[in-house]
Amino acid sequence: MSEIMTNIMDTMVNTISYVLIGFSSISLVVSSFMIGIITYVSVIERTKEIGVFA
Fold it and tell me: What is the reported pTM?
């Protein structure tokens, strides 16, 4: 009986871990993308101030 409970708990913990790893991976990708967009927009807005003409 205890082996069955241990297997069930291991499966639950592994599933929860995989879900959390998935969420954190998605959030890292999205945040990296947003940082890139914000940096790009900031550079585009400040090109005239810096004196660089594209």
Answer: 0.69
Q: What is the DSSP secondary-structure string of 16-52?
A: HHHHHHHHHHHHHHHHHHHHHHHHHHHHHHHHHHHT-
List C-alpha distances in Å: 40 to 28, 34, 35, 51, 52.
18, 10, 9, 16, 14
* Under 8 Å between Cβ of 51 and 44: no
Separation CA 42–CA 39 (nearest Å): 5
Q: What is the per-residue pLDDT across 7-30, written as a single tens digit (0 to 9) for each?
A: 999 999 999 999 999 999 999 999
**Residue 12 in 3-state DSSP?**
helix
